[in-house]
Design brief:
single chain; 21 strands; 38% helix; 19% strand; 19 helices; alpha/beta; seven-stranded mixed β-sheet
């Protein structure tokens, strides 16, 4: 290949005099080129002409053609420590101006957005969409929930040295390659060959428009589905956390579903996008089988990892509730959960004295009896919440929404257990059993339910905590 052949290929691709092009490139992909990187750069500049502009990204090691363009004496560089470009041509100064002032590195008031606004192109010469920096512009325009802020950078500007960070900055692994088929299908992208190099050319604004539409439908559109890709698993967790944060209820996971030991519980909560946990089991045992000091230490470890413990939950009422109330008061949300029993009043009284909230759940008891006990407590001036476990009502032979919920229990519900089971007691994936869990979630959302929705341990039947969170998210999206 030589400069003349490359120019012919660029014109055939659709480039003309006066165009603006953001070029991502690999010299090696073309094959042997007489004159090397300089010949490629000259080919672009001569096709674009004196009224056109060639732009290359210059952050990091992006190839010899990029380095060659940047090093030319007529090249202008945008000032940005993390997202800079170099440009040669009529609009170089306009494109590069004040890049460092932009609040977001690749989006509004940056060279990348200006190229789109001015009708420019993105050209991928022998590289795939993984090298397409304008896709970061799309992520930033969407304000994707998995994007974070950079650490502060100190650098020189025309006005002097400044220190600054940028919000919504793209992070680790992306599956930009997966967008290529959608861009081809849109009919907006032209594909050709120059030497051995596959070349893609698309208007920058078309690229942004197509991908914005995809991203609005699927917030995880640039994240891969590989369960062993820690980067994308973590970013998907951020998306889920953001999704659930828009709800009135608070999503909680049971410790029994989250893991056996504290480090495992912390890791699984973070990878699932859940920030709250109800501590029911620890080290493979119900918490009441452990020393209260052990549980208190575990709560503190969880809190130090930014995992909020919403309650201590007991498989059976403790013989002595006092030490547990002290743990709850010292460390975790001042709340306990336990089965509803006939002598519930005694537990409510001691909890009230310790200024700890108590919520009872329906283990081995029907809805009519639950209602009777809770109403009697209220008549005595004793207040207690109710953790409505629809799967347990189904196991008791009741229809949780059509019957159980309507037994005046709606007055007391402060937590709904998200779990499902058939009448014969077998745990099922959400909405596949007789717990009418979809109906229960829906009716509570209709009343802007401010309490907790707890992913219960019986969701182990479908896999991990991450699987349970994904299935619950899907359930909500289908409503």
């Amino acid at each position: 290949m030589n400069k003349a052949a490359i120019k012919t290929g660029l014109k055939k691709l659709g480039l003309n005099s006066g165009d603006i092009v953001l070029l991502h490139s690999s010299l090696a992909s073309i094959g042997h080129v007489e004159g090397g990187a300089d010949a490629v750069a000259d080919a672009f500049l001569e096709v674009l002409g004196p009224v056109g502009t060639l732009v290359v990204p210059t952050f990091g090691a992006l190839g010899i053609i990029t380095d060659t363009v940047k090093a030319r004496p007529d090249a202008l560089s945008s000032i940005h420590p993390l997202a800079s470009v170099a440009a040669i041509g009529k609009d170089a100064e306009k494109l590069c101006a004040d890049h460092w002032k932009a609040d977001i590195a690749h989006s509004e008031d940056t060279p990348y957005a200006r190229i789109a606004e001015m009708g420019g192109y993105v050209c991928l010469l022998g590289v795939d969409q993984d090298r397409n920096t304008t896709l970061h512009t799309v992520e930033e325009m969407l304000r994707a929930a998995y994007l974070g802020s950079t650490k502060e950078e100190t650098f020189d500007t025309p006005g002097g040295k400044i220190t600054k960070s940028w919000d919504f900055f793209p992070g680790p692994h992306r599956d930009f390659i997966g967008l290529d088929s959608a861009l081809r299908a849109s009919g907006k992208m032209t594909t050709s060959r120059i030497g051995n190099s596959v070349v893609r050319l698309i208007k920058s604004q078309d690229l942004i428009d197509v991908c914005l539409e995809i991203g609005k439908r699927d917030p995880a559109f640039v994240l891969c589905g590989n369960p062993n890709c820690e980067d994308c698993v973590t970013q998907r967790a951020a998306l889920r956390k953001n999704f659930f944060a828009k709800e009135d209820f608070k999503l909680v996971a049971s410790a029994a579903l989250s893991g056996k030991y504290v480090p495992e519980i912390i890791e699984n909560l973070k990878l699932s996008g859940v920030g709250m946990v109800e501590l029911d089991y620890l080290n493979g045992k119900p918490i009441q089988m452990l020393e209260s000091a052990v549980v208190e230490k575990a709560v503190l470890e969880l809190q130090e990892a930014d995992c909020e413990v919403t309650a201590l939950s007991f498989a059976a009422p403790p013989a002595d509730l006092a030490p547990w109330l002290k743990v709850a008061g010292n460390t975790c949300g001042e709340r306990v959960v336990m089965p509803l029993v006939g002598n519930a009043a005694s537990y409510v009284k001691v909890s009230a004295e310790a200024e700890i909230e108590i919520s009872f759940h329906n283990l081995g008891i029907g809805s009519e009896e639950c209602s009777r006990i809770l109403l009697e407590l209220r008549e005595q001036g004793l207040e207690a919440g109710f953790t409505f476990n629809a799967a347990l009502f189904a196991r008791a032979g009741e229809k949780p929404f059509l019957f159980s919920y309507k037994q005046k229990l709606r007055r007391f519900i402060d937590q709904l257990v998200i779990a499902d089971a058939t009448f014969d007691g077998k745990s099922q994936p959400l909405a596949n059993g007789n717990a009418e869990i979809k109906e229960m979630v829906s009716i509570l959302r209709c009343a802007s339910f401010p309490g907790y929705m707890l992913l219960g341990a019986s969701n182990k039947c479908t896999g991990s905590l991450r699987d349970a969170v994904a299935r619950f998210e899907q359930l909500l999206r289908e409503m």
